[in-house]
Amino acid sequence: MDKFRMIFQFFQSNQESFMNGICGIMALASTQMYSAFDFNCPCLPHYNLAYGLGILLVPPFILFLLGFVLNNNISMLAEEWRRPQGRRGKDPSVLRYMFCSMAQRAMIAPVVWVSVTLLDGKCITCAFCTSVPVETLGNASHPRLSQGEIQRVLARIPCKEIYNGQQLIANEVAVRYLRCISQALGWCFVLLMTTLAFLVRSLRPCFSQAAFLKSRYWSHYIDIERKLFDETCAEHARSFAKVCIQQFFEGMSTDLVAARCHLPRNAPAGAGEAAEKLLGITDQGTMNMALKSWHRCKPPLHLHPPALPTGNGWAGEGQPPPHPSVPRRQRAAYYSWV
Amino acid sequence: MDRFRMIFQYFQSNSESVMNGICGLLALASVKMYTSFDFSCPCLPLYNMAYGLGIMFIPPIILFLCGLILNRQSLVMLEEWRRPAGPRKKDLAVIRYMCSSIVQRAMVAPVVWIVVTLLDGKCLICAFSGSVDPEKFVGFANVSTAQVQQLLAKVPCKDDELMRNSTSRKAVSRYLRCWSQALGWSVLLILIIAAFLARWLRPCFNQATLLQARHWSNYIDIEQKIFEETCCEHSRLFAHKCILHFFESMQQEIKLHSFILPREGEEAEGEEDLLRGITDQDQVNKLLKTWYCEKPPLDVS
């Protein structure tokens, strides 16, 4: 459990690690999707090519875009790109770095899909079975069939149970041939991708390493700054809500005191804290009125300035508090530092 | 257990995470529902289309409604929409933002169902086997029109005696499945492109308004939660006081009726306070009866 917690915390520690985690999960998900997907070659002359190439190319494109969609940095990148200049300059190298790092991560799942598809062989077999060289592999001297007929027969190669061209070309021969080509393509593709990744990683320090370090630092900074801003806003909203509700209840009980002309009773000494926590609402009618008022007449989003001169300009638009001042404890600390 | 607790805490950390978690769970549930559902095509001419399209579209509607129901924010949004304006003005941008985020999250599970259905193919084969052109397939080309509909309707049923080893049935089945899967991948592609464009282009339009709407919608959610917590706390204290008053009044009544003189001795006082003067079976019974028949008024002033 401890190990799991450490791994979890490691991935959470910064956005890049988190994205690496998502990237790994998507790669695994793409292999899982491929094995769960029921490949079903149509075995008809023109449909085969469309289906085979479609399954080879469309899901990787979807996975690539999904990699971007799931990456929170994309909205950060777009925001940084479109924001007005203001007093902070914009650095295009930072934007380029962010885009490249997102694109690299998003490429992993599609590459995995294409590799797995090629190494498995079903797609290529389905797509190119009509292009098998019958002269070399099969029996070209078979009683002449029209071109269309030959195409139809060859199109059924992937569907063993309806294949009827055993005289023309043996099914196993054709399938082995196509699979061999598919697997060779698959391994070449994996080799190419790995070589590219190796070159990118090893050659990068040879070109403007200092500029690279700078871009990386500032892109991390923008990410952290945005997260901290969101957290601060959430904290602030919490404190704002607490004070707003507190003032709402106080306002309710003061209103009622004024309306009924009650003299405030002297609370017994021991019940001080409990009485205060009751927020001045001590019977059913008052509580009902408070609940009704909460729905019908929500308090304005405007906290009353504190009685003490803390000097913060937060709520201070110079308006005097509308309710008679009730002795307050030091609650100004909640919002005076924002 | 620890692992689940951590994952649980991560999702609980803010309400958006909770909603994303629920959304993901509903999507997984919809996949599980589909795999465990026993699809059984009726293989009769008009029933096929109704069954196939019904299975494809009715569960998504149910999942969409479930997504709306399970999302706490939909109640918060409705309340914010319907409340009278009063001293706090209503901001339509906030309500629109909340509505769009609720609908987006609720759409995920239905879309997953539809895509899984299309990629699997059974629904479309069942619904459209009767609409295929029989001339394209050898086994159906020379059959009379009346019979061909019957035969085509039986295509989804592999175990039917007529269709068991028919190559034409397999050909039609493959053909429809191919279209179904192509449609499924296309739907997925279109949705992903739409999601990508939405994420990429949103900061280009009114980013400041969006940040404000997001902040205030989060605020409304937090405020509602804190209000409920405050009310809970308040009712707890209220109940405590109410019950204390009740016990005190029972104690006074019993003292009046039984003329018990206050006992001397300070050591026994601590425990007596807890017993609140109710020290035998009859008194307890009377107290319980009074609690049931004559509950005290809701007034602790």
Automatic annotation (TrEMBL), chain A:
<dbReference type="GO" id="GO:1904669">
    <property type="term" value="P:ATP export"/>
</dbReference>
<keyword id="KW-0812">Transmembrane</keyword>
<dbReference type="GO" id="GO:0005886">
    <property type="term" value="C:plasma membrane"/>
</dbReference>
<keyword id="KW-0472">Membrane</keyword>
<keyword id="KW-0406">Ion transport</keyword>
<keyword id="KW-0813">Transport</keyword>
<dbReference type="InterPro" id="IPR029569">
    <property type="entry name" value="CALHM"/>
</dbReference>
<feature type="transmembrane region" description="Helical">
    <location>
        <begin position="21"/>
        <end position="37"/>
    </location>
</feature>
<feature type="region of interest" description="Disordered">
    <location>
        <begin position="309"/>
        <end position="329"/>
    </location>
</feature>
<keyword id="KW-0407">Ion channel</keyword>
<dbReference type="GO" id="GO:0005261">
    <property type="term" value="F:monoatomic cation channel activity"/>
</dbReference>
<protein>
    <submittedName>
        <fullName>CAHM1 protein</fullName>
    </submittedName>
</protein>
<dbReference type="Pfam" id="PF14798">
    <property type="entry name" value="Ca_hom_mod"/>
</dbReference>
<feature type="transmembrane region" description="Helical">
    <location>
        <begin position="49"/>
        <end position="74"/>
    </location>
</feature>
<feature type="transmembrane region" description="Helical">
    <location>
        <begin position="181"/>
        <end position="200"/>
    </location>
</feature>
<keyword id="KW-1133">Transmembrane helix</keyword>
<comment type="similarity">
    <text>Belongs to the CALHM family.</text>
</comment>
From TrEMBL, chain B:
<dbReference type="GO" id="GO:0005261">
    <property type="term" value="F:monoatomic cation channel activity"/>
</dbReference>
<keyword id="KW-1133">Transmembrane helix</keyword>
<feature type="transmembrane region" description="Helical">
    <location>
        <begin position="49"/>
        <end position="71"/>
    </location>
</feature>
<protein>
    <submittedName>
        <fullName>CAHM3 protein</fullName>
    </submittedName>
</protein>
<keyword id="KW-0812">Transmembrane</keyword>
<comment type="similarity">
    <text>Belongs to the CALHM family.</text>
</comment>
<keyword id="KW-0813">Transport</keyword>
<keyword id="KW-0406">Ion transport</keyword>
<dbReference type="Pfam" id="PF14798">
    <property type="entry name" value="Ca_hom_mod"/>
</dbReference>
<dbReference type="GO" id="GO:0005886">
    <property type="term" value="C:plasma membrane"/>
</dbReference>
<dbReference type="InterPro" id="IPR029569">
    <property type="entry name" value="CALHM"/>
</dbReference>
<keyword id="KW-0472">Membrane</keyword>
<feature type="transmembrane region" description="Helical">
    <location>
        <begin position="92"/>
        <end position="115"/>
    </location>
</feature>
<keyword id="KW-0407">Ion channel</keyword>
<dbReference type="GO" id="GO:1904669">
    <property type="term" value="P:ATP export"/>
</dbReference>
<feature type="transmembrane region" description="Helical">
    <location>
        <begin position="182"/>
        <end position="201"/>
    </location>
</feature>
